[in-house]
Structures are given as C-alpha cells and as structure tokens.
Amino acid sequence: SAKAATPQIRSRKTPRKTPSKPLEQARARLHVSAVPSSLPCREDEFTDIFSFVKGHLIDKLWGCLYVSGVPGTGKTATVHAMLEELNTEVQEGEIPAFQTIEINGMRLTEPHQAFVQILKHLTGQKATPQHAASLLEQYFSSPRPKSKPVVLIVDELDLLWTRKQDVLYSIFDWPTKPKSGLIVVAIANTMDLPERIMMNRVSSRLGLSRMTFQPYTFKQLQEIVEVRLQGLRAFDSEAIQLAARKVAALSGDARRALDICRRATEIAERTKQKGSKGTVGLNHVEWAVEEMFCSPKIMAIRNASEQEQIFLRALISEFRQSGLEETTFEEVLKQHVSLCRLQGFTPPSVSEIWSVCVHLASSNFATWKL
Amino acid sequence: MDPENWKNEILCRDKQLSILLSLMGKNSQATPPAIFIYGHSSTGKTFLSRKIIEAKGAPQAFVNCIECQSQRLLYEDILGQLSGMLPCVQNDYARYARCETANDFVRLLKNLIANEKWEKETVYIKPLSQDQLKINVKQGVDNAERLRNMEGHILPVFLRLSELSDCNVCVILLTQIIWEKFNATSGYLDPVKINFPDYSKNELLQIMTLDAPKEYSKAFYSSYVNLLLSIFHMACRDLSELRHLALMNFPKYIEPIEKGDATEGDAHKLWRNIEPHLKKALQTVFLREVSSSQWEQYQLSDTSTLPPLLSARAHVELPFYSKFLLIAAYLASYNPAKSDRRFFAKSHGKIRQTKRMKKAETSSQLTGPKAFQLERLMAIFYSIVDVRVAPTAHIFSQISTLVTLQLLSQIGSGDQLDAPKYRCCVSLDFIRSVSRTVNFEVMKYLYEFAA
Predict the structure, then answer these.
(1) pTM metric for this prediction
(2) Could you tell me which chain A residue has the CA closest to the CA of B145?
(3) Interface predicted TM-score (ipTM)
(4) What is the CATH number of domain B320-345+363-444?
(5) Are A277 and A250 in contact (CB under 8 A)?
C-alpha cells in the first residue's frame, strides 16, 4: 500500500534572519518557546519526578504521579526535561528501554478520544473510542514479556472529566494491574482536583504520590530571565528585577515575566536615542508592565462621547440613590435627562439614549437583559 | 424605470420614494449595506420597496421570514431566487445548493455573483419581511421573543452582508417594530432607517378614491368614502381593512339610486340610508364575527336580522356532571377560599363575620380567575349537587376532559397526581347559561353578587 504522506507546511522562500544585534538576540532567547536545556529553580522538582519514574522503571512497579501547579510554573517543561534525561540514561544502558506516550486534554475534541490517541501511539491501530477502550483494557491486563514499559504523560487532566468519569478511571486503573507496565504522569492546574471532581474510586486509584509546583518567587523569576540572557549585554539588572517583582506579586507566571521582558526590548529598540547605551532600562520595563497590566477601561471612559459619559454618570447616580446594583432603563433615562438639563444640553430622544446604552453595553461597560 | 409615471399609482409616499431612490442610485453605484424600513401595517412598505426594486431590474430576492423557520430555508430561498433555481416540478425539485450555515451562505453568494458577472450591479436581498411579526401579534405571541429565538448571528450577518461577501449587496429589512427592539448586547452595524408614517384621513381618502367603479364618478365615490371614514376612522386606520369595508358596503349605498328613489346628488337621502347600516357593520364585519360572504347575502336578501354572531354561538353541550363540575370550578376560581364556609357549609358560623368579609378590595371578575386545588373543587361539587355521587373514575375523567376542551386549565406541571391545580377559563355569561340548564342559581353563590 502507498505510504501516507506526512503532513507538512510549505517551506519559506527566504531563510529566516539570524538575530545579530544584542536586543534581537535577547528577544530570541526570551521567547517562551526557547526552553533552556536545564531549567533553573526547578532542580528539586526535577529530581523528585526523575527519581519517581526511574525507580518505578527499574523496580518494575507501576503507578501514577499527579503534578499540579498554577499556569507558567514549569510543570510541562520539567516533565519533558525528565523524559530527555531518562532517554540518555537508556542509551547509556542504566535503565531498561521504555516508550513515551503524550496526550493533552486540550487537544482532544472529546474526552473519549484519549483512548484513540493512546492506542494509535501504542500500536499504530485506529479504532472507535469504545473499541479502543476495550483493546487498551486487554493490552494492559495481559502479560507482555517482550514489549517495553510505557510512560504516559497526560496534560490538562481536568478536561478528561466526563459525567461517568470512565476515561479518568481507565487511565488510573491500568497501572494498578500487575502486568500493565504503565507509569502515568498526570498534569493539571489545581492541587485538590482529585478530591474536587473525581469520584472516590478514581482518586484512590490515583494514589497519594503528588507533587505541587509553587509559583515562582521574584528571585527565581529574576534568575530565569538572567539565565536566558547569559553573556548578553541587553538588560540592566534593575530592569530585570523590576519585571520579576511585578510578576511575582501578581501571579508568579514565568511566561508573563518573559513576555514583559520581550516587550521591553521592543520598546527600548523603538525609543533608542543616539549616544545612549542601547540596553533595556527601568523605564522601558515600567512602560511594558503598564501596557500589560493596566485595564483599558479608564482610557475608554475618558475617550467616550459626551452623551456616553453622561449616561455613565446617570447610571452611577441611580445606583447611589437606590443602593442597588441593578436598575431599569427607565430610571436611568430620568437621571440622564435631568443631568442633560443641568448641563444645559437639550436632552436626546429615548431612541438616542437607548443607542448610547447599547453602545456602552457592546463595549462591556454595562450589561443588560430584556 | 420611470418614477415619474408612478405619481398616479403611488400616492402620499413622495418623501419615502425619493429617499429610497436616492439611496439606491444606479445599479452600478454602491448602496448602503442595509436599509431598515419600519411602519405600521399597510403603510405601503412592501408595495413600495418591491416596486422600486423590480423597476431597477437588478438581481433580487424577496423572502418572507415566516416561511423560513430555519436558517437553512432562509439561505436556500435567497440563493434559489437569485440564481433562478427554485425547486419546482420542471426541474425535479432541484435547488441551487445545499446551505446550512451563514458561512456557506456568504461563500455561495459570492460564487454566484462572480459566476453571473454581477460585480458591477447591486444585488437586492429583502429578508426579514416581518409579516411574521404581524401575524404573531394577532396570535398574541410576543414578537421580540420570537426574534430572540432565531439564531443570534443571522441578523448581524445580513446587516454586513456586503462587507462579508465583498460585493455590492443591499439588504432591505421590513418590519412593524422599531429598530431599538432588534438590538443585542454585542452591537450591530446600524442600517439606514426609514419610517413609513401612518396615512392621514385625507391621504386615506385620496388613496381609496382610486377604487372608484367605472359606472360612478370619482367625486361620488369620494363622497361615499368620506362618509365611511367619518364612521370608521375612529376605530380603524388600516388602509386594506378600510378598502375592504368600502367595497363591501358600496352596493347598499347605491341601492336607492338603482331603485330610482334617489339620484347621485341626493347626499342626504343616501346618508340616511347607509348610516344605520354602517353602524351595524362596525359591530359585525370589522370583527369578522359575520363572514364577508354572509354579510353580502344579508345585504341582498333585505332581511333585517343578522345571522347569529360567532360569540353568541358559544354554546357547548355537556354531560350533567360535567356541567356541575364546571360550575364548581367557576365558583372555586372566583370566590375566595375563606368564603366557602359561608356558601357551602350547612351551619356557617357567626353572621357578623360575613359583614366584615363582604367588601373585597378589587373585583375578582376584573383580576381574573384564581387557581384552586382539586380537593376544593370536589368539595364544592359535592355540596352543590343534590344527589349522592360516588367519586368514580368517570367523574375524574370528566375533569381531565374539561381540561382538554380548554374549559379548565391545569397549572403548574410539577405535581400531576398528588396536588393538581386548576383554573376555570370560561366567562360569566357562559357559566350562567350552563347553570340555567341545570336549574342552579349560580349568582346566589358568587361572592361578589350574592346579597
């Protein structure tokens, strides 16, 4: 049979430019996709996961590990680094060979598609979800002396939740079988996910081997950025510190810190003056932080039309008078007309005020229901 | 196209005509993406817009939204009309294309315009001719409700159809409700709005004079219409309804002339002849209680008695116990529960309580029927029926039959078996005629009318 074509995208006509200037190089290194070979500030977590999986592989014990932490704390990156390290050890002959399967709940159209994906990776077979589930059940419960053990990485675990929880149950039930040869590493955001959404029999199968990734502190964030910029004179050290502190105070998300630094390099490039150092300073970072964290609402209100501003004032004064958070259009209309009279305008017609209201609602300043 | 020639056909719409003509311009010129025409029923919205678009000769589609219960029908109808491929016997019910979504619609419309080389011409689409709303109002369904039941993206897509398809497409929306009712939280591209105001009395006169029959002069017919309007204009300003009335009653008006009793100039005599007739018509024909053909027969036969009205014929034959059940239900609906003791118990306690209870704040005849429970209905039923009735399955099945006949209505579908609640849906006149047939004096038991 003819071999199926591998999907690929068209190649570029002109090759991509390699960054030459320090700021350009910094931008390339600060990109979220440019993951460094060794992850700074996640050494402990790395060792824990690594020893868990390695120990299980050597002892031929099968089980689950649940990894949780808020977004941008390096969960997936650490797991990937762990897999790479394991593969080098396999090549050195220290541990037996194993197979890796990765599925991501977000990339599945439907939770039951997980079975199809796992089966496809495992045997190259295509099947319907029900059929795949029974095949996998058979696969993991029968003894397979020749095949390699399997490390299954399940990212975005919470999206595999179904009402009957059969997908979660199967994934955590397979490793409990003595002949399965399966180690499951499940990744999700919330720490108490097993207790919150899973049935008792599912969460008990998941077991108690859990690991939590804490949000980065400002020192760690600073280190992450500094490691990436090693050997480049692009940033002032206070600038990095400011970005790290701002991000750590809000979320501790490393992606956010990297994005702010990249935006700061763009700002620095644009506002560069002759004779200056050409590095990213405090003011550039401040600018980038403001762009990212400030809500645009105040700006929008400031630039709203006169009647829109009057309508918002009417809304506020109506709320003050009634003490409630909700009111009818009729009441606001009265306030609007009297505010217009006070300011010496001819009050607009009801249709006009209504269109003002709809315009404000379409830009999310007010919500309304009929 | 020669709008000058229309001056005799289209009366009293000069302003709207000139606005529409100037907006549309020549076929090769760009038009506004959407025009929203609103006004009351029979103010000439459909007539005028159809006339203009047809005169233009541009590709066009007229859609009535009440015929399009799903978006697929709407899209396929428009594409079919534009391509001239409407399903019919000759083409074996073939259609232009299958079109399920707005996305497909825009793509197919673009293809169609490119294939037919219409890039230079304006394509007119007139969907949402909300005659649907007109009919719904008569049925008592809230019209805005209906609109929100349509998929939320359809109206925004039609409003920016020219932008999405990148072609010169003009969408004309006709409706009776104002634009403000169409607004959604996400906002729309505003169309050009044109109002069609109601016709004044003079304008109505001018338009209706066009109907003058050949045998009589225009001035004569005009004076007849004037008479007609003097009676009907208070109650009705709907042009089509008035035209219908004028045609219906004209034979009676000219009767004295045909008989030779009067001449065309004899205005007073004609007026005396027609006036009582028209006053009677106001009560009957306008409400369609007597059908138009019956009215014509009545005029010809010269009998002074009208056939029985629809409302007067509201008379239903019911079994004996059903009648009592219905009376009991009526009493339960319109009497407060605390007055039951006074009316139906053998010894009803102290008299002085009733004096205090006597004055109700508002009349229950005005506030409508109240809900009651099955137990209360049965209790009243047993106290008003003199003979002993066993609570058999027949009695209970009669209650559910009364519900299916819509004489009672069941409310709250929550507890069907344990505690069903009902409400009585018949009028006082109806219940009085029912109680007369079983010799029961219902007025004595009604809280408001009992002495």
Answers:
(1) 0.79
(2) A370
(3) 0.78
(4) 1.10.10
(5) no
